[in-house]
Amino acid sequence: MAKRSDRQQERPGGRPEQPPGDDELLAGVETALAGLRGLRGDALDDAVYAAASALAASPAGPAAVGRVLLRAAARALRRAWEGGWQPADVVRLARRELTAAEARFTVDAVAAEARRYAPDTLGARWAAQLRDLDARVWWEADEAFLDGFAGRERLSRFETVACALGALRLAGGLPRIGAAGPLPGAGHRPADAPAAPPKMLARIRALLAKAESTQFAEEAEALSAKAQQLMARHSMDEALLAAHATGPVDGPGACRIGVEGPYKSAKALLLDAVAAANHCQSVWSSDYDFSTVVGFDADLELVELMYTSLLVQATTAMARAGDDHHARGRSRRTRDFRQSFLIAYAARIRDRLTVAARAEEATETEVLPVLAAREVAVGETAERMFPTTTAHRLKGRDADGWARGEEAADAAKLR
Fold this sequence. Notes:
The protein is mainly alpha-helical. It has helices at 22-36, 41-56, 62-82, 87-97, 100-114, 124-133, 145-153, 157-172, 198-213, 217-243, 264-277, 297-327, 334-361, 368-385, 399-411, and strands at 253-258, 281-285, 290-295. A hairpin with a 4-residue loop joins β2 and β3 (290-295).
């Protein structure tokens, strides 16, 4: 019986072969990832398995492989950030396109990359995304990451490396998109903090939370309408302050809001309605499940608050109406019913929000020229960011769903 040798493999000249260093190993990972681009189906699977087998069996050992995979992830993610992507965008796409384990690897890679930046050099929205994703470094040292991830996911070392390559292939192949905020590590002024005063946000959140929880349509309508009035009042106050400021004033910015299925197009329409009523513009990127909202900081966070609340209200009302629709024996058209419901809901909400906001603005004639100038600035910024947008027309196909959607929008709480 042959004896197993623990000695390093020897070259023909008799000298032991040295395991590759981190830089050499990293170059191998980058080469493997480059070879995966453009592949699909069985060809992609075969290439991933071959590359994973070579890396998992590398004489450098699992500690070095894990360390280098995190370095490769940091490079890929930094390129994604420079191309306009943000953590929530990448993870949302990973959850849609990859396995659950690959998506969790993506979150860990985001956490590892974020270590490069001092906390005070991250924007408020960027930091909030990291918190929402629970992107944190749970491993003690990068050398322990590979085996730690394998144990947590109950994967073999080979499967873990294949998982990492799948995630890195996605992150490293993302196209450039329009930037929506400064890069991490660039340093941020205090203006990057939440624009609305804490007390104002607390009042709006409380009103919208009541609107989402009540079972009474009239109460919901009153609460949401009051929230919109507060939003309009805050926007006017901020516009007047900026107009009378003696120093430089920030121009419009942008933020991204996830718009996921089902019924993505109808939900994007609802977000556009909320944005338009609050002096913002929304551009939907259907391929990536998000909309980019362009506007002044005073309005962006409030748009997200209102949209999130109205989406909850619409989904709840749609489920109740859908149950009734199904009970009347029309289950074959449930999807058309719900799509039509949300389109009608968004169209009616657009009218109601606009009326509520403009009624509040009409009480302060001094602010109207200022708001008009800000809307022009928002439009110019959106045009620079998205010079080739395409209009998207939606049609409801279920008359009952349309009628029920309008009813729900009339009952939605805007105060």
